[in-house]
């Protein structure tokens, strides 16, 4: 007989309240941003939605809590949010010392820099003495310090917690450089600059930033669910199962597809879910390819390969 996972404290609380509470970025194009109608969209948002589809059967049963870079960790530690899907880099300190568990990376990026063309800098080596807008408590802040020190350069940090205010400070000329995960820069260039052509993203990625969903230590079932929700989107893409063909794929004779979609075996029971959990993720949210394309790829305004 297949063992059925008992509901841990997080899933019990989620089922009682009827929605997942998900910590997201205050506003980063491609990852998490509220549209003109107040609806949250983005890659990080879609992993909140995918988790809700798996656990509650409905990807819309999510409450989004926008969090700054300093706020995000206390919010997860205190239980204010059930999960953190907020452009958060996996680090040893966060994993061990802060008491978090991280799922597989949902996005790989690294520290990048955007500057105004009129300062005539095309390489990082030309930024000696620059003022740099950066989020406090971020890996970017540490990466910049290490990078400039290694190159024998100096910079003046302009540290602002609020995302809109940080980007606004750069756009108004309060700092020479906007620094963050490079994948976040094209959106700010395209949508926040009065004239995008007046800004340039410097070549190069200057750190390794594997971004992932984080949860608290101490609830193995919840960690397993959030982890395997992400893996399900990867497996779907690899098996050629997407949002537009998932119903047709229910008839597939491929045993791997049958297991993924709950037509055979009892994988869902091992997570404390039903066997259609992954089918709902793909049907309501999509495979990883679906998620990437609509937020960053050809179906998005960013069109990043």
Please tell me about this protein's structure.
By secondary structure, this protein is of the alpha/beta class. It is built from 13 helices and 14 strands. Strands 10-9-11-8-12 form a 5-stranded mixed β-sheet. The protein has a 3-stranded parallel β-sheet with strand order 4-1-5. Strands 2-3 form a two-stranded antiparallel sheet. The termini are far apart. The mean pLDDT is 96.
Topology:
Layout: H1 9-17, E1 20-25, E2 33-34, E3 40-41, H2 43-56, E4 62-67, H3 72-78, E5 83-84, H4 92-96, E6 100-102, E7 107-109, E8 111-116, E9 130-134, H5 139-150, E10 155-159, H6 163-171, E11 177-181, H7 185-191, E12 199-201, E13 209-211, E14 214-216, H8 220-238, H9 246-249, H10 255-260, H11 267-271, H12 277-284, H13 288-295
Parallel strand pairs: 1-4, 1-5, 9-10, 9-11
Antiparallel strand pairs: 2-3, 6-14, 7-13, 8-11, 8-12
Helix pairs in contact: 2-8, 2-12
Structure summarized in a few sentences:
By secondary structure, the chain is α/β, with parallel strands linked by helices. The protein is 37% helix and 18% strand. α2 (43-56) crosses α8 (220-238).
């Amino acid at each position: 007989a297949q063992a059925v996972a008992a509901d841990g404290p997080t899933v019990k609380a989620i089922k009682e309240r009827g929605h997942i509470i998900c910590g997201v970025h205050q506003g980063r194009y491609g990852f998490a941003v509220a549209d003109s109608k107040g609806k949250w969209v983005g890659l990080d948002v879609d992993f909140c939605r995918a988790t809700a589809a798996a656990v509650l059967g409905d990807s819309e049963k999510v409450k989004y809590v926008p969090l700054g870079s300093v706020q995000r960790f206390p919010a997860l530690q205190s239980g204010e949010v059930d999960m953190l899907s907020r452009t958060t880099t996996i680090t040893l300190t966060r994993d061990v010392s802060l008491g978090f568990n991280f799922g597989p990376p949902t996005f790989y990026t690294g520290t990048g820099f955007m500057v105004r063309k009129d300062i005539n800098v095309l390489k990082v080596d030309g930024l000696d003495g620059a003022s740099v807008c950066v989020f406090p408590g971020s890996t970017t802040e540490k990466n910049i310090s290490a990078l400039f020190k290694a190159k024998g350069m100096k910079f003046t940090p302009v540290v602002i917690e609020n995302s809109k205010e940080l980007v606004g400070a750069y756009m108004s000329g309060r700092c020479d450089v906007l620094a963050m995960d490079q994948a976040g820069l094209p959106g700010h260039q395209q949508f926040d600059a009065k004239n995008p052509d007046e800004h340039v993203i410097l070549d190069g990625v200057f750190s390794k930033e594997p971004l992932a969903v984080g949860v608290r230590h101490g609830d193995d079932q919840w960690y397993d669910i959030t982890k395997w929700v992400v893996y399900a989107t990867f497996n779907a893409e690899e098996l050629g199962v997407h949002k537009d063909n998932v119903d047709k794929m229910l008839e597939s004779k491929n045993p791997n597809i049958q297991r993924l979609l709950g037509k055979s075996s009892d994988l869902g029971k091992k997570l404390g879910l039903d066997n259609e959990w992954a089918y709902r993720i793909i049907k309501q949210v999509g495979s990883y390819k679906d998620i990437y394309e609509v937020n960053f790829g050809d179906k998005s305004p960013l069109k990043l390969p």
